[in-house]
Amino acid sequence: MARYQDIVGQTSLAEEAAAAYGALHQAEHEPFAFLDRIKQGIDSNTIKQLIDSYPLSSSDWAEISGIPFRSFARYLKEKKPITGIHAERILATLELILYGIDVLGSQERFFTWVERPRPNLNGMSPRELMPYAYGKELLMRRLARIEHGIY
């Protein structure tokens, strides 16, 4: 699996996993607090942890968030939080990643699955669908089918 050179430094995988779990657990049990998290934004340290923790580059996360790469890089450099729809897109992608890892059993298996074109996705790879809300919804449904043994 390819890693890409990023514009940020190294951080702890354990810190990111704890923060990710906390944010998603909060979404499930306290939806209005989760909405507040989206409004407040995702701080640059959390974004850097995501970049370091998963084989997605800064440009991948910029595309996922819907922010042009140069603006995304500036947010990180200036330590500005990413808010609103952009934060929501990042958190929805994180939810997809964590669910996929849970269903497929490991991060490596999930990202291998993400990179390969799939006949049941019209020949597209899951990676191609990840930047789009509807694409994420399709992938969540596909993972649910896998989880329940319906291929």
Characteristic key phrases:
mainly alpha; globular; 151 residues
Q: Number of helical runs?
A: 9
SSE succession: HHHHHHHHH
Task: Indicate the radius of gyration in whole angstroms.
Answer: 15 Å
Number of strands: 0
Beta-strand percentage? under 5%
Q: What does this 3D model show about the protein?
A:
The chain has helices at 13-29, 31-40, 44-53, 58-65, 69-77, 84-104, 107-115, 126-129, 133-147. The protein has 151 residues and is mainly α. It has one domain. Helix 1 crosses helix 3 (44-53). The two termini are 24 Å apart.
Which secondary structure elements does this structure contain, and how are they paired or packed?
Blueprint lengths: L12 H17 L1 H10 L3 H10 L4 H8 L3 H9 L6 H21 L2 H9 L10 H4 L3 H15 L4
Helix pairs in contact: 1-2, 1-3, 1-6, 6-7, 6-9
Quick recap:
By secondary structure, the protein is mostly helical.
